[in-house]
Amino acid sequence: xxxxxxxxxxxxxxxxxxxxxxxxxxxxxxxxxxxxxxxxxxxxxxxxxxxxxxxxxxxxxxxxxxxxxxxxxxxxxxxxxxxxxxxxxxxxxxxxxxxxxxxxxxxxxxxxxxxxxxxxxxxxxxxxxxxxxxxxxxxxxxxxxxxxxxxxxxxxxxxxxxxxxxxxxxx
Length: 171
Description:
By secondary structure, the chain is α+β, with helices and mostly antiparallel strands. The chain has one domain: Aminopeptidase. 32% of the residues lie in helices and 28% in strands. It contains 6 helices and 7 strands; from the N terminus they run αβαααβββαβαββ. The protein has helices spanning 3-6, 20-36, 49-54, 56-59, 108-122, 138-146; strands at 9-13, 65-72, 75-84, 91-99, 127-133, 150-151, 163-169. Strands 1-2-3-4-5-7-6 form a 7-stranded mixed β-sheet, sandwiched between helices. α5 links the parallel β4 (91-99) and β5 (127-133). It starts with a helix and ends with a strand. The mean pLDDT is 90.
């Protein structure tokens, strides 16, 4: 039995309010990475971030949106947020993909993206959208491409310069 088998990862929708502290911790780690990444500080939607963290249960409430959390035993080790795009019927948008450094290289990012795709399909979406700063997250962009995401036109009003817009068809 490998170490990975001894500590399996489970992914599920956040349960509010009990998962709020774990979700906030993961998303603070995400923000810290963006501010201190090797490509230089990136302010990807971090304006009013503390307010966003305080209101996660209202922001990510099914069936309109969800925050998926990955757990290894009782420890939260990753997350991804998905929202339906009411302004773009048939679309969902993926945000805030994060895996803790201790889990990197074990396929957790792929599992979270697949879970986001599955959730989006269950909501009737035919495409999943995202935006990212490729310089700050080259490994994530590589993973997105491996999972079928392709570059697309701007699909939101995110004002951050240098954004890469991507989508994957869910059909």
